[in-house]
Request: fold
Amino acid sequence: MDRKKVTIADLFEKKREGKKITMMTAYDYPTAVLVDQAGIDTILVGDSLAMVMLGYESTVPVTMDEMIHHCKAVYRGAKYGFILGDMPFMSYQVSIEKAVENAGRFIKEAVCDSVKLEGGSEMAPVAEAIVKAGIPVCAHIGLTPQTATMLSGFKVQGKDAESARELVTAAKDFEAAGCFMIVMECIPDLLAERITQELTIPTIGIGAGKDCDGQVLVYHDLVGLFDRFTPKFVKQYVDLSPQIVDALVQYKKEVEEGSFPGPEHSFAMKAEEAEKL
Ligand code: KIV
Reply:
């Protein structure tokens, strides 16, 4: 069957038909190739790259230029997945003009299909302005890591009725603003189910239970390449780190003992040329 690039219409159709949408983060060319090969619907170049790729303590320090650099690499690797570029902290909060300009960079320079931004109802006008500029926007509600300090840390959001209602309102505001999708992070599963039922746009959960329209995980968590901390919602499908360390230790040993490179990895010279050396 001819494989086509995933579109927003495909994502809406999946929601309508009750088929789950898959999303995975990728930050570089080889990972994008693998995620695409796995047939994942959507690829998020998340600002989580600040932590899992660049070693920062949080997502806050990553810059627009760094995000664009990684998005470009993902674009070169992903032929089918629908790509979302994550707008970094302070690239959309200062002014609506700046937000639209920065969102535009994800589309023009990095060839992303859309952008994602974090926040509550207060960010709906920003999302609306970006959408009006012709750029698809995915909102990210609940635990919003860029502003985790304001939330007093990395905690489950919407646990009481009042804050849950605020999240329902935020989700509806983003839908009314024209967002095509909403990521919901770390909220009770019942609340995520309610929001999913009340919206016509797809919802993607991370720590939001199984009743969202789709799920996202951070690639490095899923394959065991990030061990600084593991949130409860993470499922590690494979533990690559020890396998990679084993390979590196083996390489070191073979270089040190002189068994690598062998003749099969080396280039011979014709005898008559060698004589002239
Ligand atoms: O940056 C990211 O990877 C994210 C996901 C956790 C949704 O925003």
Residues 25, 44, 46-48, 86, 140, 183, 185, 206, 216, 218 surround 3-methyl-2-oxobutanoic acid (CB under 6 Å). The chain has two domains: 8-239, 243-275. The chain has a mean pLDDT of 97. The radius of gyration is 22 Å.
